[in-house]
């Protein structure tokens, strides 16, 4: 049985573009610490290519974890979260729910940035929602709520707790409110 977190191929392509945009916004936090490591940038570019239909899902699924390894190359929590945002964006080809992971890690990255203000999380969530087109909003609305389906990233893992979980809950609530 396919997980409800997967989404159709068409929906995954739609939300991959948004996930890549979310990850790209925080990429400078990673690159400031590891300017010679292009892994997250390449993951975002692959997500964008997947979104445009230029990259097959099977190939992206095979290499989706590569970007996550870049998190081990940096030490600041903001840079780690930025690398994980890129990895989540690349993983959308596998499962659409990773788009929410990309967004949540981007929010985490901005809140951990040295110049983060008290409204950093809310400001980033507002930006993310403002950059959702109607198709992406509808596709995200087809995902189960966080914690409802244990078979995927929205199940019982890292995305369900702390700022990641609260970010995803906020995005899902606002997407469903229209």
Please render the helix and strand layout as text:
Elements: H1 9-31, H2 39-51, H3 57-62, H4 77-90, H5 98-112, H6 120-130, H7 134-141, H8 162-177
Helix pairs in contact: 1-2, 1-4, 1-5, 1-7, 2-4, 4-5, 5-6, 5-8
Task: Sum up the structure in keywords.
178 residues, mainly alpha, globular
Distance between the termini: 30 Å
- The succession of helices and strands, N to C, reads HHHHHHHH
Q: In terms of per-residue confidence, which ranges show pLDDT below 50 for 5 or more consecutive residues?
A: none
> What would the average pLDDT be, to the nearest integer?
92
Largest sheet: none
Please compute the radius of gyration using only Cα atoms: 15 Å
Number of strands: 0
Shape verdict: globular
Structural class: mainly alpha
Number of helices: 8
Q: Specify the helix fraction band.
A: 55-70%
The amount of beta strand, in percent, is under 5%
In words, what does this structure look like?
The chain is an all-alpha fold. The protein has helices spanning 9-31, 39-51, 57-62, 77-90, 98-112, 120-130, 134-141, 162-177. The termini are far apart. The longest helix has 23 residues, at 9-31.
Summarize the structure.
This protein has 178 residues and is mainly α. It has helices spanning 9-31, 39-51, 57-62, 77-90, 98-112, 120-130, 134-141, 162-177.
């Amino acid at each position: 049985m396919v997980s409800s977190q997967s989404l159709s191929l068409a929906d995954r392509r739609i939300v991959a573009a948004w996930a890549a945009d979310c990850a790209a916004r925080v990429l400078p936090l990673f690159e400031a610490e590891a300017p010679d490591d292009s892994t997250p940038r390449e993951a975002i570019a692959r997500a964008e290519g997947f979104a445009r239909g230029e990259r097959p899902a099977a190939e992206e699924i095979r290499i989706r974890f590569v970007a996550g390894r870049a998190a081990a190359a940096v030490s600041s929590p903001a840079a780690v979260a930025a690398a994980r945002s890129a990895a989540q964006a690349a993983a959308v080809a596998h499962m659409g729910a990773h788009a929410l992971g990309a967004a949540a890690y981007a929010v985490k990255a901005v809140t951990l940035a040295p110049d983060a203000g008290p409204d950093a999380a809310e400001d980033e969530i507002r930006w993310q929602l403002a950059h959702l087109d109607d198709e992406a909003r509808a596709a995200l609305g087809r995902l189960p709520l966080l914690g409802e389906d244990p078979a995927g990233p929205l199940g019982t893992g890292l995305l369900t707790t702390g700022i990641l979980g609260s970010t995803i809950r906020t995005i899902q609530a606002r997407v469903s409110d229209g």
